[in-house]
Design a protein that fits this description.
D-Maltodextrin-Binding Protein, domain 2; alpha+beta; 32% helix; Fructose-1,6-Bisphosphatase, Chain A, domain 1; seven-stranded mixed sheet; 21% strand; 2 domains
């Protein structure tokens, strides 16, 4: 259902997203019957992805035949090739979740105008949650204004991410990042849909999100939701030009500011010194038998810059004296029987 108060292009995107969501919901009733193929290792596509993408493109092209299209499954095959208006489409973000019946997936549609995202829709069909944003007009979830969280201390924060799953992904680097973040945060989550992760940051359900290896259709719509909800988004070094850089960090301003110094050394755009520091950290974590114990060493800075107060100095524990327990000696029997 469209709203007269929304931008006309958002209304078209909502119509397209809901049509795609209807296809997804019907298929979810019997997910075992869905035909699945594999694009590459651990990267799946289904007939539902293709059907969803077709209905989105048809809806948009009917309304705006002169616009361009960049879609996950069909690329730039449809739409005008030289338009300043380009719709960036992920018809089913979270396909692996979908084919397992795990209800964390969504439809993501964004409009780029001269390279800047100006309209965004993310639709979660399993919950019927609709996230929308128009540049300069704020972000909304089901017609309710949303804002990023107000948390300022890292140890109170829930941070979402995506684990590496493709051949060639730097798994050891992710282990090092998790070793740096897990002891500092209240929790680290991997829901499996980057678009929905960003929508949740915008709504304040989580405080930050980071991931590498992402494509524009994974993050285009979510990026506008985050900024219109008062958050920040960029690459791991904090630079705002991130859409095509395959690394993304988003969060409320305070937590974003604390995460950039932690993640900078793991960015492909990091300087030589930072990259050397990242290599040292990766080797230290990789060689450890106890990942979590090693990760907690030297977390606190003198100023408590990890987002929590520096702990009071504690006295070294007193050495414990070990004694061997002896079994009790039985009393001799009384010869008188008394």
């Amino acid at each position: 259902m469209s709203s007269p108060n929304l931008h006309p292009m958002i209304n078209v995107a909502i119509k397209a997203a809901r049509a795609a969501g209807a296809i997804i919901n019907r298929a979810a009733l019997d997910v075992e019957a869905v035909r699945v193929s594999q694009k590459q290792v651990n990267d799946f596509v289904t007939e539902v992805d293709h059907a969803s993408e077709r209905v989105i493109i048809e809806t948009i092209m009917t309304a705006y035949p002169g616009h361009g299209i960049l879609a996950e499954e069909s690329g730039t095959e449809h739409g005008a090739k030289d338009s300043e208006f380009v719709w960036i489409i992920d018809p089913l973000d979270g396909t692996t979740n979908f084919i397992h019946g795990f209800p964390v997936y969504c439809v993501s549609i964004a409009l780029s105008v001269r390279g800047k995202i100006e309209q965004a829709v993310i639709y979660d069909p399993s919950r019927n949650d609709l996230f929308t944003a128009t540049k300069g007009r704020g972000a909304f979830m089901n017609d309710r204004r949303i804002r990023v969280s107000k948390r300022t201390r890292m140890n109170e924060c829930l941070i979402s991410t995506g684990f590496p799953f493709r051949t060639g992904d730097n798994f050891k680097q992710y282990l090092a990042i998790m070793a740096d973040l897990m002891p500092r945060a209240a929790g680290l989550r991997r829901p499996g849909s980057a678009a929905l992760d960003l929508a949740y940051v915008a709504a304040g359900f989580s405080d930050a999100f980071f991931e590498t290896g992402l494509n524009p259709w994974d993050i285009a719509a979510g990026s506008l939701l985050v900024t219109e909800a008062g958050g920040l988004i960029g690459n791991f070094t904090g630079e705002p030009d991130f859409l095509d850089q395959r690394e993304c960090l988003a969060g409320n301003p305070k937590i974003y500011g604390q995460l950039v110094p932690l993640l900078t050394k793991y960015s492909k755009f990091a300087g030589v010194d930072d990259k050397m520091a990242a290599s040292d950290r990766i080797r230290a974590v990789d060689s450890s038998k106890d990942l979590y114990a090693r990760s907690t060493v030297d977390l606190q800075q003198p100023d408590g810059s990890d987002g929590s107060a520096a702990p009071a100095s504690a006295a070294a524990p007193a050495p414990r004296k070990l004694t061997r327990a002896r079994p009790p000696v039985a009393a001799p029997a009384d010869p008188a029987g008394e």
